[in-house]
Amino acid sequence: MLQSAVELIGDDLPRFGVEGLGLDSIDALELAVSMEKTFGVSVPNSEVAGKALQTVNTIHDYILEKRGAPL
Fold it and tell me: Burial of 66 by CB count in 10 Å (0-12 exposed, 13-18 middle, 19+ buried)?
């Protein structure tokens, strides 16, 4: 469970690793499942997840790209 206040989570703050929010692979899976349920956008593999789930901005851009919306 994330223990950071929402206002402390910047759009470019890394989601994973000690220099970011410290999320792990289970968190990434939960995020990917949530993206599919909420936006109809799947994350097909760990390579794509590693790029798409880095920050709030990369998640945003990935969802828009997969839905065919302009960035």
Answer: middle
Only one residue has tokens 């469970």, namely: 1
Strand partners, 16: 23
Residues in CB range of 2: below 8 A, 6 or more apart: 21, 23, 27
DSSP state of 7: G
- 23, β-bridge pairs: 16
CA–CA distances in Å: residue 61 to residues 31, 49, 65: 15, 13, 6
**In contact, 70 and 64? CB cutoff 8 Å:** yes
The residue that leads in pLDDT, 16 or 40, is 40
pTM over 0.85: no
